Amino acid sequence: MSKNIVFDTNILLDMVMHRSVRESKALRLMSQCADRRLNPMCVSLSLKDVDYIVKVNIKRDFKDAAEGVERETVRQLVSRIGWTSVESILKVCEVAAVDGRVCEDALTLRSVHPDYEDDLIVAASRQVDADMVVTGDKDMIRHFPDLCVSVEDALARVEKMDGQ
After folding, report:
1. DSSP E strand boundaries for the chain
2. Which pLDDT tens digit goes with each residue over 2-27?
3. Which of 95, 117, 124, 143 is deepest in the core (most CB within 10 A)?
């Protein structure tokens, strides 16, 4: 039976934007998932966030582009980079949907964790019977210790598995 490992938006961004020290560990974790026949997943809402955040960062990085050709190059880059980032995630991750039930379930989590967006990730992960949510969000890890783990902890757990 395949184990579901959900990657939170911040970990997906680390991987596609090559940011933070977590990137290499997250990529190693993704590789270990493939080697051990685990099921890497993401939540559908994360994909639109990745698209948006990647585009915003590219625009910011090139905000002073000169007129003419450079500006057109940046415009084309921005229009493609979000799509490419989402496509790369979809090549390796199954998607956990956010439907009305997940939205309602997330509301019940507010007394534990007061961030609705994070609660949607947790509720969607629970709906797909995820074994863990890999996140860089320390509050999520603290508030949902039965489900949410750091990339380092997830990697250690996965590397202890026997390649089922």
Report:
1. 4-7, 39-43, 94-96, 132-134, 148-149
2. 599 999 999 999 999 887 777 888 99
3. 124
